[in-house]
Amino acid sequence: MNFLRGVMGGQSAGPQHTEAETIQKLCDRVASSTLLDDRRNAVRALKSLSKKYRLEVGIQAMEHLIHVLQTDRSDSEIIGYALDTLYNIISNDEEEEVDDVEGKRFEDLGSQFTEIFIKQQENVTLLLSLLEGKWRTSEFDFHVRWPGVKLLTSLLKQLGPQVQQIILVSPMGVSRLMDLLADSREVIRNDGVLLLQALTRSNGAIQKIVAFENAFERLLDIITEEGNSDGGIVVEDCLILLQNLLKNNNSNQNFFKEGSYIQRMKPWFEVGDENSGWSAQKVTNLHLMLQLVRVLVSPTNPPGATSSCQKAMFQCGLLQQLCTILMATGVPADILTETINTVSEVIRGCQVNQDYFASVNAPSNPPRPAIVVLLMSMVNERQPFVLRCAVLYCFQCFLYKNQKGQGEIVSTLLPSTIDAMGNSVSAGQLLCGGLFSTDSLSNWCAAVALAHALQENATQKEQLLRVQLATNIGNPPVSLLQQCTNILSQGDKINRRGSKIQTRVGLLMLLCTWLSNCPIAVTHFLHNSANVPFLTGQIAENLGEEEQLVQGLCALLLGISIYFNDNSLESYMKEKLKQLIEKRIGKENFIEKLGFISKHELYSRASQKPQPNFPSPEYMIFDHEFTKLVKELEGVITKAIYKSSEEDKKEEEVKKTLEQHDSIVTHYKNMIREQDLQLEELKQQVSTLKCQNEQLQTAVTQQVSQIQQHKDQYNLLKVQLGKENQHHGSQSDGAQMNGIQPEEIGRLREEIEELKSKQELLQSQLAEKDSLIENLVSELLQPSASAGDSEKVAELKEELATLKSQLNSQSVEITKLQTEKQELLQKTEAFAKSVPVQGEGETPAAANSTDVEGRLSALLQETKELKNEIKALSEERTAIKEQLDSSNSTIAILQNEKDKLELEITDSKKEQDDLLVLLADQDQKILSLKNKLKDLGHPVEEEDELESGDQEDEDDETEDGGKDQDQGYL
Amino acid sequence: MAYAYLFKYIIIGDTGVGKSCLLLQFTDKRFQPVHDLTIGVEFGARMITIDGKQIKLQIWDTAGQESFRSITRSYYRGAAGALLVYDITRRDTFNHLTTWLEDARQHSNSNMVIMLIGNKSDLESRREVKKEEGEAFAREHGLIFMETSAKTASNVEEAFINTAKEIYEKIQEGVFDINNEANGIKIGPQHGATNATHAGNQGGQQAGGGCC
Ligand SMILES: Nc1nc2c(ncn2[C@@H]2O[C@H](COP(=O)(O)OP(=O)(O)OP(=O)(O)O)[C@@H](O)[C@H]2O)c(=O)[nH]1
Ligand SMILES: [Mg+2]
């Protein structure tokens, strides 16, 4: 208020005396007139003065206007004027053209009046109640609602936190404002969105209530209705509100994901390939849409939350849609850049999405992998800086926690694959090209990108050592490692565009990443006798501030060469390197230089977020992952430098025993794993054998019943033949029949003979099988022979298979036999029918008849014999069936034995567990020994780390938000 | 994604009675031994099956502390179900039930189903409120009642599912206006379609926060 008075006092040149008087008069009328019309006219007049004489009207009329709001609620017009006037007083919106000094003062004016208005909390509550949709259909509502919404928005813009607090504590305050989104009048709905924007700004509690009131559904509906990115500014406003609701609000993000709203974002990105419509509004809308996706998968969200959103985005096809934009033509550069950033975060650390991304091809001819196309832009100087940064980020995200992807990238550099690639350019080639180009930005990006292919991946660190580069014609190839150090040491000779520091910092970061945790790489590095002198030279020199960072990085690299040194090079053992530091640099000096890295002004900036986001190329110095490495190593290297050689030795010993223990445990673990596998195999074999046995049994049963049928048919045949004999004893023309039947029967007999011999074979094989089973059983009884068992079972299985196939062929033959018999039967029948006809037509011949009689009786005899044979055959079948039964039960016994064996394996597993416990005890002892050592005054912290390293591995993964957590949060 | 209905729940009751633990046990099958004071409101979700129908539960776990009361009141209106929780080892939390109930009845829609829960049933030795007392209170005020343990997970599933059953029955009886989302109920995108078809591919996603 003091301020206001000051302004008033100093404004003698302001409004004329008469204006102030007029305002006073109008206020008096509002306050005292008993006629509504009169009051309404006075308020209307105040409104018209309120823009020009904002200060005067504000000071003199505010309380009267509030009074009107309280008492004249039945008249929408006067309420509308009052609200408009208050809005004019409080809002700064209309004052944009005013020059700076004036503008500042008006801004203060707005917040001062806001403060006065909200001093009485009831005023805000009053405003809220006016906004309530009591008069939903009438014009009245509109007059009140619209200015009311604008006034409240202004209040929130002026003094957000205070007004938010008042609304939060007034019953259902927030919920009521949510109804504005449902208003049928677009103006109110759209201004309602703006109000909610101001209401939800940085207030988590309100954001949650708004989300609870179905804001997501409403806003997504509006965006859809308005045509997604083709919609107007309303879409933009809705997107900003959505961002307010979701950014840094885990609860709302979870709600958004659980409400399946991610799926509804997909159509936003169906923008098509046509270059027609990229209006400014559309670009803005798409930008916000992409940012909204990023809010949900931001690397700073809890890992579980991000990963479940990433999965949903793949499942609903959103990622695929984004990749389409990535590869489309005619997309504006800033949209393309933001799309790359978005894809980056959607795939980061999510294997499924990374795999998908690796499979995306650009629609070129021939198709090229998207990764290759993107990398081309990264090492292309003509591309915009932000785009190149985005590509680097994308590449980093693709490789983050992606061992498979890392392997694929490194493999494109290995000799074998390079040959196979032919002419098409590979990711590895592009990276090497970038690494050694004359553009420092490309150097830096390629170095960092390559470092990400090695991150936490010992295999690839070793693989990359194999990479050889062809240099000038005639010179021998140089290893990649060698070439990096060469450039470092001769860096100044090459004329580069951009900053020299950038190239060197990039290469040093790559080397540090490469050598850390990889003793072989350290050995390779030290093997080049020029490297250590170069490093010590760099560190020891007294250089300007410019060079401090490079010195620090050289110190880090040397430190890594000591810390991860396995003493395999006589001339560069740990101890010798340490002595060298002491002599050439001095321990203190070395540590100080090492500290330059984390003290660098750009270091903390890079350590905050994974995205390489730099205002301009000069700021491109640190990589996020590298800052993590520095954090991890700075302390341990410092300790390692100060540590005496004796301590080193002791540590070495402890390390060794621990490694031994580890290897024993690993050995047992492997053994158990193998045995588990064997057990599983055996189980499976038993079950298949059982199944086969059942099949065989049913086959035998079928065959037995077939034999029975044959027997019956023979009987029938016999009876028929007998009858034939009686009726046509003097049959003369039996030649036809006699000619055929004996022949048929002969064949039949032969076949039966064959059948019999086959069955004998079968029987002997069964006997063999029996003995085999016996062998198997006896071997099974000796548990140690478990490995042999599987072979026996396999044999048994084979035997059963041949048995089965033999039975099959047998059954085929029987079928053949059967059909032949059928034929025979038919012929006999036909004959029987034809005989009477012939008998009537011709005179029977007595001699023939006797002949026929004799033959028939022989036939009868033969049939009898056949019958017997079949009977024997059927008996044999029964026997076989029995044998199969018994072999079946043998197999059951076999299985029992296996179960026993399983039990024994479990026992032995238990024993091994005991052994493991014993080992753990031993570990414990070592620990206590170490503690004693500690008590004796030897610092042994590092040993602690080494010791617990193995157990902590799993915990670490969880902390890093790896796959474990992904599952945990599902 | 394919659910027949969506129900909104709130969990209310004094601070420290185990509201957040109940939710965590229900959604993640975990127990959190340390009291992690809820600030304002936290969201959780899970799919359940009732009568062969997939039902999505969206649950808002509110802060029990007095200072958050005005915020948490905003959640009554849009909820179809409420779990009102007390701690069987702390009588004062039982004594406050009347206040809670009045608050709930005043701010919620009249059909909201309220489940009374006596939590921490695993701490039998420290019990201060008899089960019969809880039952009597529930009977008197027309609530469903259950004793649970967020620690051992005893009755936790049942508490959430029985509340849903009650709501589901009310829907069948036509008590709820299911077209008014302010009642905390939403019909699923595939309601009316034969359930068997999508029940199959939903089977694996019942527990936890599986999306879609
Ligand atoms: N023994 C036992 N302890 C429980 C049980 N449920 C919760 N607790 C413990 O009670 C304490 C409070 O649990 P919370 O779930 O955080 O309590 P809250 O009701 O959410 O509290 P506010 O968030 O402050 O409202 C924690 O220490 C829990 O471990 C239970 O069933 N048995
Ligand atoms: Mg809680």
What does this structure look like?
Chain A has 970 residues and is mostly helical. Among the domains of chain A are: 214-359, Leucine-rich Repeat Variant (Alpha Horseshoe); 404-415 and 426-643, Leucine-rich Repeat Variant. Chain B has one domain (5-187): P-loop containing nucleotide triphosphate hydrolases (Rossmann fold), CATH 3.40.50. Chain B is built from 7 helices and 7 strands; from the N terminus they run E-H-E-E-H-E-H-H-E-H-E-H-E-H. The relative contact order of chain B is 0.22. The interface between A and B is medium-sized, with 34 and 26 residues. Residues 19-20, 38, 61 of chain B line the site of magnesium ion (MG).
Which spans of chain B of ≥5 residues are poorly predicted at pLDDT below 50?
192-212
Considering residues with a beta carbon less than 8 A from a beta carbon on another chain, report the largest interface and each chain's count: A-B, 34 and 26 residues
- Highest CATH level, the class of chain B: Alpha Beta
The residue-averaged pLDDT of chain A reads 83
Under the CATH scheme, which class of one domain in chain A?
Answer: Mainly Alpha
Residue fraction in strands of chain A:
under 5%
CATH superfamily grouping of one domain in chain A: Leucine-rich Repeat Variant
Shape of chain B: globular
Which ranges of chain A are low-confidence, i.e. pLDDT below 50, for 5 or more consecutive residues? 1-13, 729-740, 836-844, 943-970
Please describe the biggest sheet of chain A, giving its number of strands, its sense, and whether it closes into a barrel: 2 strands, antiparallel
Number of domains of chain B: 1
Biggest sheet descriptor of chain B: 7 strands, mixed
Helix/strand/pairing category of chain B: alpha/beta
Number of strands of chain A: 4
Task: Give me the CATH architecture of chain B, please.
Answer: 3-Layer(aba) Sandwich
Question: Which strand-content bin applies to the residues of chain B?
Answer: 15-25%
